[in-house]
Amino acid sequence: MNTITLSNGVEVPQLGFGVFQIPQDQTAQAVRDAVEVGYRHIDTAQSYFNEAQVGEGVATCGIDRKELFITTKVWIEHYGYENAKVSLEESFKKLNLDYIDLVLLHQPFADYYGAWRALEEFYRDGRIRAIGVSNFNPGRLADIAAFNDIAPMVNQVETNPFHQQVAAHENMVARHVAHEAWAPFGEGRNGLFDNPVLARIGEAHGKSVAQVVLRWLMQRDVIALAKSTHKERMAENFDIFDFELSAEEMATIATLDSHTSLFFDHDAPETVDKFVKMVADRRGRA
């Protein structure tokens, strides 16, 4: 398994397994299946409402905890210093872990500065091995990195062939922040799995479009999070370390970039409104 070394020396398995939108009653088994396939990096979040089930999967997967890399994220509703600390204790309880490998601030809205101070405190206490952010654009990433004692070690952002985040990646590299990709397949939007360019490259290597996308991310030094509830698909996504894309193939994939999110623009005022509504809708969920 390839690893990415963070600015503090912590190594992250470059290919991770994400549990976004996996139902609670399927999550523990999905985690066990992913670990059996070979994944050692599991990514969840408070807002996924399946941290407890991830913890169950980790506890029952048969692999020593030290061999696993577990990520969770603090949700906007829990921002601010005190609120974030309370929510982190709840995440520890749900995950049933003595330490968490990586904790991210999930969105760049509300009092993320207060929440960041809470992450710094848990990091200094050794309860969290690395801290970072998610969905922070280059300007907000520069801001939080410049005006805090500890700079983010990771920024998890939407990254796929149609939204490649080239400028954002360069900014992360310049600031020694690891680039992590959510939605590497864009949830199949824009016909990604039938894209003729990706399919042709896959045929040349005897690989699927999904495998080409993940290999492309590996070669860009991006941490990728693949999700599936089907064990055979998990295994297929994991089988990407026996081939390499040529420089010409990487350049061809670069031409697919639309420089536009397949989901929503975090810089748009309407996105703030969207998350205000989302917080209200999710308030009170277990």
Q: What features would you describe in this structure?
A:
The chain is of the alpha/beta class and 286 residues long. It has one domain: TIM Barrel (Alpha-Beta Barrel). Helix content is 42%, strand content 16%. The chain has 11 helices and 10 strands. The strands form 2 sheets. Strands 3-4-5-6-7-8-9-10 form an 8-stranded parallel beta barrel, surrounded by 5 helices. Helix 1 (24-37) links the parallel strand 3 and strand 4 (41-43). Helix 7 packs across helix 8 (209-219). The longest helix has 15 residues, at 81-95. It is globular and about 55 Å long. The two termini are 34 Å apart.
Task: Record the SSE blueprint.
Elements: E1 3-5, E2 11-13, E3 15-18, H1 24-37, E4 41-43, H2 51-59, E5 69-74, H3 81-95, E6 100-105, H4 112-124, E7 128-134, H5 138-146, E8 154-158, H6 166-174, E9 178-182, H7 196-205, H8 209-219, E10 223-226, H9 231-238, H10 247-254, H11 269-282
Parallel strand pairs: 3-4, 3-10, 4-5, 5-6, 6-7, 7-8, 8-9, 9-10
Antiparallel strand pairs: 1-2
